[in-house]
């Protein structure tokens, strides 16, 4: 166990860089939206919804996750979903977030791009009133085709100036980064920040990480802690200030452990590794809980936790002035806590 207090971790100013908005759908909201939209659900109570959370790997998680989105229909549903997350993480003193959303998970159900986009975007604007700077990262589903990714990239055109970056998620099995080389190169040349999931312990994890870095030219990798298996790749991400967004509690659900050892090793080597919640409604863990979980598991010091938190601000896709302001808030908080 770490000797760091829960209060210290909760009150530290924080950034979250790996968060799927659709993964913040809490059972209560799911039930409310189902009723509002006249969607017949088999589950009638929170307990019954939670009883469907049976997963032990990424594929079985996604099989629960996608059908859960059926209750999201109108613009205000997407707004309420995102706003509920921002209100929750305000309690964790989160100051800065970059959130993923999955257009194809909604358009393939007949929901128009502008419906979910306008709802999500309005919530990012209203998050400012909660003291949170929020940005959107549009992800492609890697188990769909390159053609579908390009189609959605085109569909998003009217909204480009409100999208910060482009990501890649969903099932990595047989869907490597190179399948999307052309669309990511296009996005990069159009000025978007780019990142990709390289999920834990996949077949070809190291090759996928290498291709994402060397062929696609990603600026971050989501998960990606298998990189510890290849020192040349570790050296490359250190030299190029490329961050890894790790999600320990999510890892403990979809693999055999939270990969805390890898996080600590990468942190000690100077990699910009960060701690995030991924899909907090499903894994019952918001960002402070993830930090506490990994701190307990690896007996991290206060300095380790502060470094993990600062790493997230340091690799955030916002202005240098904003980053410095956030880092200052962390330093001031730590100094005031130590002076207590
Ligand atoms: N979509 C939501 N969570 C994900 C994860 N951990 N990996 C890939 N796709 C996801
Ligand atoms: Zn993820």
Please give a structural write-up.
The chain is of the alpha/beta class and about 350 residues long. It has a single domain (about 5-340), classed as TIM Barrel (Alpha-Beta Barrel), CATH 3.20.20.140. The protein has helices at about 5-10, 25-35, 45-50, 60-70, 75-90, 105, 115-125, 145-155, 180-190, 205-215, 230-240, 250-255, 260-270, 280-285, 285-300, 300-315, 320-340; strands at about 15, 95-100, 135-140, 165-170, 195-200, 220-225, 245, 270-275. The chain contains 17 helices and eight strands. An eight-stranded parallel β-sheet has the order 1-2-3-4-5-6-7-8. It is about 50% helix and about 15% strand. The longest helix is centred in the last third of the chain and has 19 residues, at about 320-340. Bound molecules: adenine and zinc ion (ZN). Adenine binds next to loops.
User: What is the fold-level CATH name, i.e. the topology?
Assistant: TIM Barrel
Radius of gyration: 19 Å
Structural class: alpha/beta
Bound molecules: adenine, zinc ion
* CATH homolog superfamily: Metal-dependent hydrolases
Which blocks of ≥5 consecutive residues have pLDDT under 50? Answer: none
Give the integer mean of the pLDDT values: 98
Q: Compute the number of structural domains.
A: 1
Percent of residues in beta strands: 5-15%
- Beta-strand segment tally: 8
Distance between the termini: 22 Å
Sheet having the most strands: 8 strands, parallel
Q: How many helices?
A: 17
Classified by CATH, the class is Alpha Beta
């Amino acid at each position: 166990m770490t000797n760091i207090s829960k209060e210290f971790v909760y009150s530290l100013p924080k950034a979250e860089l790996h968060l799927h908005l659709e993964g913040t759908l809490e059972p209560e909201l799911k039930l409310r939206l189902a009723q509002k939209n006249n969607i017949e659900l088999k589950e009638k109570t929170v307990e019954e919804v939670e009883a469907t959370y049976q997963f032990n790997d990424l594929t079985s998680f996604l099989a629960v996750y996608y059908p859960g989105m059926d209750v999201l229909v109108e613009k205000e549903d997407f707004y309420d979903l995102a706003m509920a997350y921002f209100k929750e993480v305000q309690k964790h003193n989160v100051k800065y977030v970059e959130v993923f959303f999955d257009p194809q998970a909604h358009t393939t159900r007949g929901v128009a791009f502008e419906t979910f986009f306008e709802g999500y975007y309005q919530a990012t604007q209203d998050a400012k009133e909660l003291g949170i700077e929020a940005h959107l990262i549009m992800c492609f589903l890697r188990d769909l085709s390159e053609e579908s990714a390009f189609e959605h990239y085109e569909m998003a055109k009217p909204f480009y100036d409100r999208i910060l970056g482009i990501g890649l998620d969903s099932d990595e099995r047989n869907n490597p980064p190179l399948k999307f080389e052309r669309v990511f190169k296009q996005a990069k040349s159009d000025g978007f920040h780019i990142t990709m999931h390289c999920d834990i312990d996949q077949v070809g994890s190291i090759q996928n990480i290498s291709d994402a870095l060397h062929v696609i030219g990603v600026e971050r990798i989501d998960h990606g802690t298998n990189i510890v298996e290849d020192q040349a790749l570790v050296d490359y991400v250190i030299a190029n200030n490329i961050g890894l967004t790790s999600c320990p509690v999510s890892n403990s659900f979809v693999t055999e452990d939270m990969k805390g050892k890898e996080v600590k090793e990468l942190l000690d080597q100077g990699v910009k590794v960060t701690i995030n919640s991924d899909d907090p409604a499903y894994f019952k863990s918001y960002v402070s809980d993830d930090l506490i979980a990994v701190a307990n598991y690896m007996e991290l010091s206060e300095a380790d936790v502060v470094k993990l938190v600062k790493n997230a601000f340091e690799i955030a896709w916002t202005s240098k002035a904003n980053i410095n302001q956030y880092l200052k808030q962390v330093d001031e908080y730590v100094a005031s806590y130590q002076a207590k």
